[in-house]
Amino acid sequence: MINYEIKTDLKSMQPEEISKLLKQTAWAADRSKQAIEKSLEHSMCYGVFLKDSGLQIAFARVITDYATNYYLCDVVVDQKYRGMGIGKAMLSAVSETEILKPLLGLLITEDAQTFYEPYGFRIDNICFMSKSGIQRKQ
Questions:
Q1: Global pTM?
Q2: Which domain holds residue 115?
Q3: pLDDT for the residue 126
Q4: Looking at the DSSP assignment, which residues form a beta bridge with residue 49?
Q5: What is the rounded CA–CA span in Å between residue 94 and residue 64?
Q6: How far is the C-alpha of 21 from the C-alpha of 75, rounded, in Å?
Q7: Which pLDDT value is given to residue 51?
Q8: Strand 69-77 vs strand 56-64: parallel, antiparallel, or unpaired?
Q9: What's the first-to-final CA gap in the chain, in angstroms?
Q10: What is the pLDDT of residues 46-78, one digit of tens each?
Q11: What is the CATH number of the domain that holds 45?
């Protein structure tokens, strides 16, 4: 079992490590370091860090207006640490954030619905639409 801690302060986030984590994803593999740094500044961030080395091994961020809804995105755990409950611990931390509890939580996932369901997320009949200014890989 690994020893880790979850932090939410922006100063603790490690943009270089977050970039490496996002390169392991289908949705943000090509995101620039500049875009990552700017997104951190405008989000509530959750990071998981190894206690012995301080290395960041997981990340999630929340975009919100603090009044009506929030969008959970960029949820990723380093491939070496998956299956150890780290993602679940991070989602619990998000779910337990007092300011988010009364808000409508939104997220997009193609294949991880069962991962998010224990935290109150449900497949909804709401029509989701998007407009992207960034070309995504198909």
A1: 0.89
A2: 4-119
A3: 75
A4: 5, 56
A5: 12
A6: 10
A7: 97
A8: antiparallel
A9: 37
A10: 999 999 999 999 999 999 999 999 999 999 999
A11: 3.40.630.30
Number of structural domains in the chain: 1
Q: What CA–CA distances, in Å, run from 69 to 34, 66, 90?
A: 26, 7, 19
Answer whether residue 129 is part of any domain. Answer: no
CA distance 114 to 98: 23
pLDDT tens for 24-53 read 998 999 999 999 999 999 999 999 999 999
Q: Is the pLDDT of residue 128 over 80?
A: no
DSSP E strands, the chain: 4-7, 44-50, 56-64, 69-77, 104-107
| pLDDT for residue 136 is more than 80 | no
Question: Taking the alpha carbons of 122, 5, 68, 110 in that order, is the dihedral positive or negative?
Answer: negative
* Contact (Cβ atoms closer than 8 angstroms) between residue 95 and residue 119: yes
Shortest CA distance to 59 belongs to which of 105, 106, 12? 12
